[in-house]
Amino acid sequence: NYLLGVGRADCTGPVAEIPLMGYANPDQVGGGLLTRLYSRAFIVADLDDSRRVVFVSADIGMVSQRLRLEVLKKLKSKYGELYQQDNVILSGTHTHSGPGGYFQYTLFWITSKGLIRPSLNAIVNGIVKSIDIAHQNMKRGRLFINRGTVENSQINRSPFSYLKNPASERSRYSSDTDKEMVMLKMVDGSGQDLGLISWFAVHPVSMNNTNRLVNSDNMGYASYLFEQEKNKGMLPGEGSFVAAFASSNLGDVSPNTKGPFCVNTGESCNNPQSTCPVGGATMCMAMGPGNDMFDSTRIIGQNIYFKARELYENASQEVTGPLSSAHQWVNMSDVSVELNATHTVKTCKPALGHSFAAGTIDGVGALNFTQGSVEGDPFWDEIRDQLLGEPSNETKACHKPKPILFSTGEMTRPHPWHPDIVDVQIVAIGSLAIVAVPGEFTTMSGRRLREAVKREFDSHGTPRMDVVIAGLCNVYTHYITTYEEYQVQRYEAASTIYGPHTLSAYIQLYRGLARAIATNTVQDLPRGPEPPAFNIGDMTLVPPLTVDRVLANKMFGDVLQEVRQQYRAREVAEVTFVGANPRSSAENAIEHNFLTVERYASTSDSWRVIQNDASWDTRFYWTKGLLGRSNVTIEWHIPHGTEPGIYRIRYFGHCKKKMSNNHAVFIPFEGASSAFEITAL
Which residues pair with residue 331 across a beta bridge? Predict the structure, then answer.
């Protein structure tokens, strides 16, 4: 028995003009909304409330160090010492369709146009609010764990790297991805459902890098389905049941199960360089199981949801026992690793290899780089040396065989380009150990880490621990491949920033945390060097928010393109309005909802909201025009089984106006489509 609390809060932020975080494609800028992003928080406390732990999964690309530091600061001012760096895990789902700009290290500024305060604030406030809600709703309850296999939802996107791992190790596993889902079910004292956390390793990249709508991708869709199922009759984002689908060791795992094809010729490009005969690497793209990216997101999300529902319904193994948490800050650019009694190696200052710029089959790079480069390219190296400076001989030697593209650990202007100080953290809830890792472990890296942590618990008198990896936690340090995978320098290896011994260093560190928990000596762990918080104002290339304008004879919210009078299920109702920049809403209204779909109830002569902008079936598009003018198009993809009747679509926005004293104000407005009829098939 424990005290349990769950909470969910919106963390969407601005849905327009902000670069989306994940594919590192500067052209992929937000232009609307498919589904809202949420932070989901879970608090577990002892019955005597002597100890508590927090797990947060947020629908964002990854947790950045800046984000974590600001969340911890807010928690401290609210709750004192209750929630601290050791007992709070912040994890990102790794959707590639959320707003970026919440990083303090310079490398991430290049594609996300600097530090974008409204984006950072939305995530910080959403995470804190979800924890507040969980904190206010603590009640007695029980935890159950279950695990099972998810089929047809992943492929390894760097199989040629995976095959470099020892044959004796590979022969112990039936697949080159981890197909196991681990699920933690939460119920209250009377057996009422509270929520769940699921961990499963797959990239949320069913939505590809042409997408401009903010959304939570396949993992978010699984959450959406589970929460809609349990919060019957509620709109998306409402209701008390919270279902988090959290990330795990997804480094080399893609949901694009048809595999890589040349988009120009249709032939397979499943080769060590992921390159096509015509057009090279830029033509090689993996395809999902659906007929477009929305359909693929739905299929993969549904697969994950179905398995989670089955595991939830059949969960019978109760989790009991004490709570503990261990955390250290570590300078990852300078860790000595004892490989064996006679051999010690070191990690390196952070650096990215040439293949980092190639991207992956889920999203290729913009230039003609290919994966698997173990040689540099004199052309790009010369440009790099001129612009950014040449890597030192020491860093070059340390990272071998990686040819260094960016020696980020030696680049400090205007601030350091990559973190040195990294969080390592384990939270134990009875027999469940949650290993919070600061990046993307590949399949085999994750297996080695889990095994090492489990062995450490075993050998110190805590057998039968369930060890789960929570990905993209606390600070982002790109990828972590095995030493063997590192040698072939595909994208994941080129992005293993602390060098070939990164994984060995983490295994050594996490074993230390596991040992401290098992032997009850957490208080003796050194805290390590505190991470820096750089003093950054608004450093951004995002255009300033200008005044919204309309044509002389128009008003905000006027309909420009009307709906049809009649639709059937599976058709798309579409309406276009005179719009305003959605950023005006994001920066001025907490939890702003941009749209509703409403059904007319003749008995009460009133309209009832049946969908909002968090709904999977609605799409909100913003199109920027000239001189501050813009349009908004709302689509409702009418689902199968929609009741026949009279419906309408409404739009809610804010327009920015300058007053005579040069002070800007934001004025709310709304628009509505004509009523339309949905007829039976």
Answer: 421
Domain ranges within the chain, ordered by starting residue: 2-331+418-524, 558-679
Cβ-based neighbours of 411, under 8 Å, separated by 6 or more: 106, 388, 389, 417
Beta carbons of 580 and 656 less than 8 angstroms apart:
yes
> Of 498, 441, 493, nearest to 470 (Cα)?
441
Residues in the annotated binding site for Zn(2+): 94, 203, 440, 479
Residue spans of beta strands (DSSP E) within 490-640: 559-561, 566-568, 572-579, 595-601, 606-612, 618-624, 630-637
How far from chain centre, in Å, is Cα 23? 12
CB-CB contact of 419 with 477 (8 Å):
yes
Residue 659's CB is within 10 A of a number of other CB atoms, namely 8
Residues of the chain falling short of pLDDT 50: none
Q: Are strands 88-92 and 52-58 parallel, antiparallel or unpaired?
A: parallel
Class of domain 558-679: mainly beta
Contact call for residues 360 and 255 (beta carbons, < 8 A): no
Distance between CA atoms of 424 and 436, rounded to whole angstroms?
7
Q: Tokens in use for 37? A: 């992003």
- What's the Cα-to-Cα distance from 332 to each of 72, 346, 394, 420, 529, rounded to whole Å? 22, 10, 16, 6, 11
Task: Specify the residue for token string 């959450």.
Answer: 223
- At residue 374, the pLDDT reads 87
List beta partners, residue 88.
54
The catalytic residue among 64, 254, 274, 673 is: 254
Spatial separation of the C-alpha atoms in residues 124 and 172, rounded to whole Å: 42
Please indicate whether residue 198 is annotated as part of the active site: no
Classify burial at 588, counting beta carbons within 10 Å of its beta carbon; exposed 0-12, middle 13-18, buried 19 or more. middle
List pLDDT tens digits, range 163-215.
999 999 999 999 999 999 999 999 999 999 999 999 999 999 999 999 999 99
Angle at 126 between CA 620 and CA 41, to 5 degrees: 115
Contact yes or no for 25/366 (Cβ under 8 A): yes
> For the whole model, what pTM was predicted?
0.97
pLDDT at 590: 66
Query: 514: helix, coil or strand?
Result: helix
Exposed/middle/buried for residue 355 (C-beta within 10 Å: 0-12, 13-18, 19+): buried
Report the alpha-carbon distance of residue 592 to residue 254 in Å, rounded.
Answer: 33
SS3 content of the chain, % helix, strand, coil (to 5): 25, 30, 45
Which residue blocks in 137-162 are alpha helix, DSSP H?
A: 159-162
Question: Each residue of 319-343: pLDDT tens digit?
Answer: 999 999 999 999 999 999 999 999 9
